[in-house]
Write a structure and sequence with these properties.
This protein has helices spanning about 110-120, 140-145, 175-180, 195-205, 210-220, 225-230, 230-235, 240-270, 285-300, 330-335, 340-365, 425-435, and strands spanning about 10-15, 15-20, 50-55, 90-95, 155-160, 165-170, 170-175, 180-185, 185-190, 310, 320, 325-330, 370, 375, 380-385, 400-405, 415-425. The chain is an alpha/beta fold and about 450 residues long. The strands form six sheets. A seven-stranded mixed sheet has the order 5-10-3-15-16-4-17, with helices on both faces. The protein has a two-stranded antiparallel sheet with strand order 1-2. α4 packs parallel to α9 (about 285-300) and α8 runs antiparallel to α9. It is about 30% helix and about 15% strand.
């Protein structure tokens, strides 16, 4: 098999549909996978490094999050136990701070500030009006420099819809609480919570209006996206070796399974009572909603549709209940625990549930071979919160971990304790270096974070 037969940019096309492909052995390296100073000259330079940022609200119960030991011999505490299968792929970081999540003279509103500063490291203007302002987020700083290599410069998804206007936290606009991605200081990037719409965005082609026509026709004939590209699929199959054919079959099966799960979610949601009606395609089951969104993120990275993504597991300050894990009380209410042991127990249940969804995402990324390693090896997935303890509303010693070695440039399987008040934005600068989007500063950064490699 001639390894240079197939372009990396090959897609399967049908009416209004374009299905990007994973990296095959039969594909030639693409120069767009530009090596950074950290990996120049290495084999990894032929593969892109992706970055994803996942936020959880209301802080975390820190005694069940923070490992007792540092270095390689740390044990996973209760909240992180679901990550056991990917422990060697984790870098747990203690001591990072977001000073701009603090009041700094602006009074109450820690939840809004924590979300607004989570990826920007900037102090949001306290307003409930249209004059919102914070700063460019790390994901959008990356998208600005590497977004032209992919169909989608970035992908913004979430689980909980939010209000687009009005105040949500002590005089701060709801936009601050509902958004972690900012294209500019005054331009928030709205997240999509409907899996169907995310799916259509990933697999419709670029022609204006054509994607909607394809969806309408597919609904009319009850066809899968894969039906629309079947001719291209057959032609490609004949050009691939056995290993690549198997990889293609697994990839397309994964797409079809997600289609079926979204269709089931739409059917289930239509049975809800009117007062609990949700947009079509949003599953009633929160865990299934999160897993579908995680699978869509994996597909986006696997097929190189984007290299930058953000996901909010819930809006900051969310008071959503978790009855399915025996927590009927609202999350935000519980986070103001006042030291109550019963509330602590329920908070740790919520925290562990969120980490279980993270574990699902990371295990999916790790299950996909890419080059000599896995898709997770070529990722950096940051998970954390802009608040440490929900009762104290503190923004130092934040719960943060990064999964994936960033193309072999991060030494994982460790817990590192940094000096207190180390800006989290220093980590962002180091991550930007690793995706080829270096910048001199971001937010309140003071330099690169050392000790990652």
């Amino acid at each position: 098999m001639n390894r240079n037969l197939i372009s990396r940019r090959t897609v399967l096309r049908g009416l209004g549909t374009a299905v990007a492909l994973p990296l095959f052995e039969a594909m030639r390296p693409v120069r767009a996978f530009a090596a950074t100073p950290l990996d120049a000259g290495s084999a990894a330079a032929t593969r892109p490094v992706r970055m994803a940022f996942i936020s959880v609200p209301n802080g975390i119960h820190m005694p069940d999050w923070t490992p007792k030991a540092t270095g390689y011999d740390f044990e996973l505490p209760f909240t992180m136990e679901p990550l056991a299968k990917v422990k060697d792929d984790l870098l747990v970081m203690t001591g990072l701070t977001h000073d701009k999540g603090r009041a700094n003279g602006d009074g109450p509103g820690d939840h809004a500030r924590s979300a607004a500063s989570f990826l920007t490291g900037a102090q949001p203007v306290k307003t409930a009006g249209a004059n919102i302002r914070v700063g460019t987020s790390v994901d959008q700083a990356a998208a600005e420099k590497i977004g032209h290599y992919t169909r989608l410069p970035s992908l913004e998804i979430g689980i909980e819809p939010g209000r687009g206007a009005g105040g949500c936290d002590s005089g701060y606009s709801c936009i601050y609480s509902n958004t972690i991605s900012w294209k500019s200081a005054s331009t928030p990037m709205a997240k999509e919570v409907n899996p169907r719409l995310v799916f259509e965005r990933l697999f419709s082609n670029k022609s204006p209006g054509e994607g909607g026509k394809a969806a309408a026709r597919r609904d009319l004939y009850k066809k899968s996206i894969l039906d629309l590209v079947s001719d291209d699929t057959r032609r490609l199959h004949g050009r691939l070796g056995d290993a690549d054919r198997h990889k293609l079959d697994e990839y397309l099966t994964g797409i079809r399974e997600i289609e079926q799960r979204i269709a089931k979610a739409e059917k289930d949601s239509s049975h809800e009572l009117p007062e609990f009606a949700k947009p079509s395609g949003v599953p009633q089951d929160m865990g299934e909603h999160m897993r579908i969104m995680c699978d869509l993120l994996v597909l986006a990275f696997q097929s190189d549709l984007t290299r930058v993504a953000t996901c909010m597991f819930a809006n900051e300050g969310s008071n959503r209940s978790y009855r399915f894990i025996d927590v009927p009380e609202g999350h935000h209410d519980l986070s103001h625990h006042g030291g109550d042991a019963a509330k602590h127990a329920k908070i740790r249940k919520i925290n562990r549930f969120h980490v279980q969804q993270l574990a699902y995402l990371l295990e999916r990324l790790k299950s996909i071979p890419e080059g000599d390693g896995t898709l997770l090896d070529n990722c950096m997935v940051l998970y954390g919160s802009g608040i440490s303890d929900g009762n104290r509303h503190n923004h130092d010693d934040l719960p943060v971990l990064v999964a994936g070695s960033g193309g072999g440039t991060i030494c994982t399987g460790r817990h590192i304790r940094f000096e207190q008040e180390t800006p989290m934005c220093n980590l962002f600068l180091s991550m930007l270096d690793r995706v080829g989007a270096s910048t001199d500063s971001l937010g309140d950064s003071t330099g690169r974070l050392t000790g990652l490699s």
